[in-house]
Amino acid sequence: MPTALIRRIVICLIVAAPAVVLRISGTEVAPVVDLFAFGGAIVAAAFLLAWAAEAAQKDISGALAIALLALIAVLPEYAVDLFYAFRSGSDPDYLHFAAANMTGSNRLLLGFGWPLVVIIALLVARRTLRRVNASSTRPHSAAAGPAAATALRLGAGARMDIGFLVILGVLAFAIPLLGSIPVWFGIGLILIFAAYLWRAGQSAGDEEEEFVGAAALIVSMSTKARRITVIALFVVSAGIILFSAEPFAEALVASGQSLGIDSYFLVQWLAPLASEAPEFIIAAMFALRGMGAAAIGTLIASKVNQWSLLVGSLPLAHLAGGGGAGLPLDGRQIEEFTLTATQTILGVAIILALRFHWIPALGLAGLFGLQFFVTDTSGRYVLSAIQAILAIVFLILHRSDILPTLTAPFRRPRPETAEESPNEALAEAADSDRDPRGGSAREAGAARADA
User: Fold this and answer.
1) What integer pLDDT is reported at residue 146 of this predicted model?
2) Is the backbone of residue 260 left (phi > 0), alpha (psi -120 to 50) or beta?
3) According to the CATH classification, is domain 3-131+149-412 in 1.20.1420.30?
4) Which of 61, 68, 233, 329: CA 20 to 30 A from 322?
5) How many angstroms separate the CA atoms of 316 and 321, rounded?
6) pTM as predicted
């Protein structure tokens, strides 16, 4: 095993060790100490899980890999969210926490994760184009280089994911209208997730995966050692997450009460920040290495997972915990779901044309940050209306892409060509500005940023 990999794994295990000691010994400490101990353990385990899930793609192909990785990657978030939903079945005090983590992580992913990847990808693309143009013998190319990288272009295969996200985003508006998440509705969302996995499995190509960071170190090992390492990381990380989920969830509520901070705020934002951090870091690493389309594609798939499997599982967990045939929502949760649904529709409206410009990306981040200052109910609904109006504007601008996107989940998949591969590039420049000497795709700006 590479020394660099051993060092990373040991660091994660050291971070998780206090939580394991506290849980096994049963030692009672202040809620804030529990919060940091068990929260740190979940973050560390999430990193181990992310590395193993990425490296597993080397040995598992097709729909099985997609299903396995989709379930494993969201385990930290699911563990906390489903705990609250399960407890709400027997303790009404947990009802308003049941969907808080989901709405927080959902908005964090789109409002922070998507813009982060786009901005990093375009900065890398501008730097690459500047270097290519500086070495070009064509006199006019230098003037167009750095300005060319203004939009991240997604691969054609992303249209199916966006299509599923559009369908789920529209269905999400039924939740605030119903005032609850019925079991039948949850089952329907889970069936959509199953259909998504099936379609994704059909669309999976045979191209060689690219790996970064710890996953690349794992992949460099011999086949037997790699598989043993991946399985061991899966088992250890899953054990730490399941071991820490309940005390971390309880510590969030108790810490809010002891510190005088709204417990709902901690559940909605601190828990998702812990569970999503590894995914954000890995996506950022992909973007830094010239694979921005692949990075944003991963985050889009995570949105599909959240709106389908996660939301669909909440009423089932509530029922299993002794609750009724639906997860009831209070006024605050209805408000949060409305805000989250309108943000989702705005996000997909922006990328319908498979281009993610930097200005809308910053706009998404700005609207996401604004919600922390608009805390009253009427203000939240006004913010939801603003997002809905902007979504309509982008839908009008991208009206020619609406039908292809809506039909993408139902069309027969076609193989992705080399020119369309999201792993091939990070920015697209005009044909006249490309490297005339036929350099590599990454050097010639194949990352697809529009002029």
Assistant:
1) 40
2) left
3) yes
4) 68
5) 9
6) 0.80
